Amino acid sequence: MDIKKQFTPQDKSRVRLEITIGQQDVSDFYHGILQKYAKTIQIPGFRKGKVPEKILEQKYGDAIKHDAEGDLINEAIEKAVETADKYEKPLAYSQAELDGTPVFEPGKDFSFAVVYDVFPKVEFKKLEGFEIEVPEASVKDEDMNRELEAIRERNGLVADKEDGAPAENNDIATITYFETDDGENEIENSRRDGFVLTIGKSLDAYKLDEAVIGMKKGETKVVEKTYPEDYEFQGLAGQTKKFKITLDALKKNELPALDDELAQDVSEKYKTLDDLKADIRRNLQLTLENKISMMKTNSLLEKIIEANDFDLPESMVNVEMEARWRNLADRFRTDTSKLEKLMAATGSDKNTTFSNWRPETEKLLKSRVIVETLIQDRDISVTPEDVDAEIKKIAEKAGVSEEEAKKHYADPRSKEYLIDDIKEQRLYDQLLEKCTVKKGKEMSLEELLGDK
Predict the structure, then answer these.
(1) What is the Cα–Cα distance from 127 to 432, expressed in whole angstroms?
(2) How many CB atoms lie within 10 A of CB 445?
(3) Going by C-beta distance under 8 Å and a sequence separation of 6 or more, which residues neighbour residue 448?
(4) Mean pLDDT throughout 211-216?
(5) How many CA atoms lie within 13 A of 357 on its CB side?
(6) To 5 degrees, how large is the angle CA 4–CA 10–CA 11?
(7) pTM here?
(8) 270, 272, 278, 283 alpha-carbon torsion, rounded to 10°
(9) pLDDT per residue over 164-186, tens digit each?
(10) Residue 354: pLDDT above 90?
(11) Average pLDDT of the segment spanning 347-366
(12) What pLDDT score was predicted for residue 34?
């Protein structure tokens, strides 16, 4: 098929593609559709596959022309973008939209135009001379103690608390609750049966674990909670709600002693408690270094975005937020339709959530676009030797053997992720060489990791 095509950039990373197909190709394509119909349609008085084209056109002309037009448009678009670059090709999740109403007539030239989203093109104005500030932090004894306490809790023995014992911090409670109106009547779709939480460490939006403290198994009570204006769950911010809570079951976590036996229970690679402590300190130090590195690169990317702003295609933003919505449903162990009902019960909805997510989502996507573009522009590549050297470095930092680390990256997908990470780090190193990195305020590791 011989076509004439013209790509015209539009606002918000969109392209208008105009295509013209010559009359001979249009006729040939149309007759091909007619032949396809002739092989499948049965008309009284004619053998199957022997229906004359004129009879088919008389009986099904409009339907045949409609099919031919749609198939011809799709085929022409595919051919037009075969050799196009990524700034002209439609994104995989972008639906091309007809621009105008084309007129299809067999035996005549056929012209049409479509508009679709493409990969954003960034015109870099500034990539050097940024000032970046990162906090100072170190691994301290309190960080070690916190990790050791978490290990004790993970290795504790869960047992029922004695009848009549009050609920306390760190107890594991199973509750039934629902939201009530002022008359203590149950509000529809707000009931949760058999909801399990650890008091003082619950991640539920309503923060009901605070209300459970002091309750006894089998007890029911009504509580009123007022959420601050800056509450992390926007659908509840500034609201006051009443809940009826029943404590169905109460368990406690009996913690083991902090000794060599506990270390051996955690892993056979530990012989003593000191072995475990050394590994914890190494892991915390690695976590600290990774966090500082991430903060440095995030700050760098934010400054690059500010200096070289560009538009994202709407389809790219929507796909990212839909993926995040599905992940949120997975976290709540439900599906997306039930998640919408759950959000409605908190006074929020999907559209409001997407609106709240949008600034962060756009920043993340713009960072990805910048990194991908610069890696390609600078032709940053990775050799097998580079991969082996990185695996050796990872093994040393993690305190494992090189063979152990190689097993982890034996999977092709894991290896591909590692290669991408190496490329990104090389890009960041190149960019940071041209920037000034300052030490900021001193923070605790807990503050740095966002746990406080």
Answers:
(1) 10
(2) 22
(3) 135, 137, 288, 291, 292
(4) 94
(5) 18
(6) 170
(7) 0.73
(8) 40
(9) 999 999 899 999 999 999 888 99
(10) yes
(11) 92
(12) 82
- Residue 209, amino acid: D
The per-residue pLDDT for 419 is 96
Residue 191: left if φ>0, alpha if ψ -120 to 50, beta else—which one?
beta
Determine what percent of the chain falls in helix, strand and coil, rounding each to the nearest 5. 45, 20, 35
Residues forming a β-bridge with 178: 244
In this prediction, residues 291-314 reach a mean pLDDT of 95
pLDDT 10s digits, 410-440: 999 999 999 999 999 999 999 999 999 999 9
> CA-CA distance, 29 to 66, in Å (whole number)?
13
- Judge whether 405 and 391 are in contact, CB under 8 Å: yes
Q: How many CB atoms lie within 10 A of CB 437?
A: 14
Token couple for 82: 């075969």
SS3 assignment for the chain? CCEEEEEEEECCCEEEEEEEECHHHHHHHHHHHHHHHHHHCCCCCCCCCCCCHHHHHHHHHHHHHHHHHHHHHHHHHHHHHCCCCCCCCCCCCCCCEECCCCCCCCCCCEEEEEEEECCCCCCCCCCCCCEEEEEECCCCHHHHHHHHHHHHHHCCEEEECCCCCCCCCCCEEEEEEEEECCCCCECCCCCEEEEEEECCCCCCCCCCHHHHCCCCCCCEEEEEEECCCCCCCCCCCCCEEEEEEEEEEEEEEECCCCCHHHHHHHCCCCCCHHHHHHHHHHHHHHHHHHHHHHHHHHHHHHHHHHHCCCCCCHHHHHHHHHHHHHHHHHHCCCCHHHHHHHHHHCCCCHHHHHHHHHHHHHHHHHHHHHHHHHHHHCCCCCCHHHHHHHHHHHHHHHCCCHHHHHHHCCCHHHHHHHHHHHHHHHHHHHHHCCCEEEEEEECCHHHHCCCC
- 80-108 tens-digit pLDDT: 999 999 999 999 988 899 999 999 998 89
Amino acid at 351: N
